[in-house]
Amino acid sequence: MSVPPKPWRRGTNPPSLMLRKGAQFCNTFGEQNWHRIRLIDTQPRPAYAGRGCLKIKYRMTRQNQVLLQGKALLSRFLLWYNLKMSIRKVPLVQDECYHIYSRGNSKREIFHDRNDYERFKKLLYLANSDKNFRLETIKNVYEVERGNRLVSIGAYCQMPNHFHIIIKQNGESGASKFMQKLLTAYTMYYNIRYERTGSLFEGKFKAEHLGNDRYLKYVFSYIHLNPVKLIYPDWKEDGLGDKKRVLNFLNKYAYSSFLDYLGENRPEKAILNRREFPNYFPSKRHFENEILDWINYNNETKLRE
């Protein structure tokens, strides 16, 4: 003879469960078990606002008690998590400069071939607008009239599993709107092409305020030197043995704004709005000297060590 489950009594404290346990039981029993809540009886209740309703008394099995507790804990956690994730450590303010970066979920690659890199560059241009566009219907992307720009882009660099952008926010929430359009559009493209689902990027994008003039200039060089890791992964720690090879590699790397600062005439130069940033590099020679200074400085530091 089976023993009937004990009814849940109002005012009693349910067993303490960790969020992990609640999630585990939710996954174990699933949505299909909601019908296992056993009704005992019903009691008529006076009509309210002209409509009749019933007050239901019920008894829960042990499984459903745990299931309900797990769902409640998960709901509280998700509410806390969404509130936490919506608050930025670095507020994005109009007319201020920021270093924006994001990488693939679990450090996965987000650019596998030339098509991926080129797609993202085109989205850098089209997403920076208060209008919406369908990329597949546009022939000459970098000639599209975009209207008002959400941000001004000073530099960018794409790496196999992450990217960097220097922006200046135009208007209220311009940076957040731009990044939402950019990341959403690229994720949709990526998931369709590689037949996958879910998030592509690791959490929300990161932002560093570039309020110091010296720091802003440094980040321009840092971003453009990022591709060096592809041929010398530990160059910051070990230095560079062949500067000529490094410069030749950077001069051929098409997935950053390095070539635009060298004065190369290519369509994607329209991504940048350099006039909104300090004129650190008025000529090709100034830019080359800055890059060489950082390479030499790094090598000299390693020699002294």
Describe this structure in words.
Helices cover 40% and strands 16% of the residues. Strand 4 (151-159) and strand 5 (162-169) form a beta hairpin. By secondary structure, it is of the alpha+beta class. It is built from nine helices and six strands, in the order H-E-E-H-E-H-E-E-H-E-H-H-H-H-H. The protein has helices at residues 19-29, 62-86, 114-126, 174-193, 213-225, 235-238, 243-252, 258-261, 284-304; strands at 38-48, 51-59, 97-103, 151-159, 162-169, 206-209. The strands form two sheets. Strands 4-5-3-6 form a four-stranded antiparallel β-sheet. Strands 1-2 form a two-stranded antiparallel sheet. The termini are far apart.
Question: Structural class from helices and strands?
Answer: alpha+beta
The main sheet comes to: 4 strands, antiparallel
- The unreliable regions are 5-10, 12-58
Order of helices and strands: HEEHEHEEHEHHHHH
Count of domain modules: 2
Give the strand line-up of the largest sheet: 4-5-3-6
Number of helices: 9
The radius of gyration is 28 Å
Q: In percent, how much strand structure appears in the residues?
A: 15-25%
What coarse outline follows from CA principal-axis ratios? globular
Write down the overall mean pLDDT.
78
The share of residues in helices is: 25-40%
CATH class of the largest domain: Alpha Beta
Total E-strand runs:
6
CATH superfamily of the largest domain: Transposase IS200-like
User: How many angstroms does the end-to-end distance come to?
Assistant: 81 Å
Query: If you consult CATH, what is the topology of the largest domain?
Result: Alpha-Beta Plaits
